[in-house]
Amino acid sequence: MFTGIVEELGEITAVENLGDASRFRLRGPVVTEGARHGDSIAVNGVCLTVVEHEGDEFTADVMAETLDRSSLGVLAVGSRVNLERPMAVGDRLGGHIVQGHVDGTGEVIERKPSENWEIVKISLPADLTRYVVEKGSITVDGISLTVVEAGPDFFTVSLIPTTLDLTTLGLKQPGDPVNLEVDVIAKYVERLLGSRGEQPAGLPGTQGATP
Description:
The chain is mainly beta. The protein has helices at about 65-70, 160-165, 185-195, and strands spanning about 10-15, 20-25, 40-45, 45-55, 55-65, 80-85, 105-115, 120-125, 135-140, 145-150, 155-160, 175-180. The chain is globular, with a radius of gyration of 18 Å.
């Protein structure tokens, strides 16, 4: 489990094509400290397993399914990535519960800078809109963020200078893809109510549902 609080900006140093998968080599001095074979590290919000570790670099295998369903497939040597180690028992939950299981990808639509923050508008796949609410949590490229506006096919987030400086969202431009993970609690609530023949009131297609 992760919290969506990015520990460092890493870098892709090598990409090896394995046919039905790819092996990434990544540099990240912070997340590799004490890393061992089999450990998990979130890369742009995708939970990957450490295959090898040497110095400040580690390798991870990414299967075709992950490459197809996330934005990891567009990464190349030199790409910057958000890195986070799993939360340890007893740590503070600084963001929200993040599994590292990407639900879909969005695309940066526009950026609106202001004096002290920046508003970023991101497209939202139709099958994820019911899980995104204003002031709720969403994970974008592994970053725990608060939704400012939840539209029919988009959402916006407000980024402070620290987020812009220390994560990939400071680098993303309109047209760039991002990984999205919605709040897992919303998915569990939907499943539990669905097993009772109910749907959460106010969600698309739930008119007349039991409150």
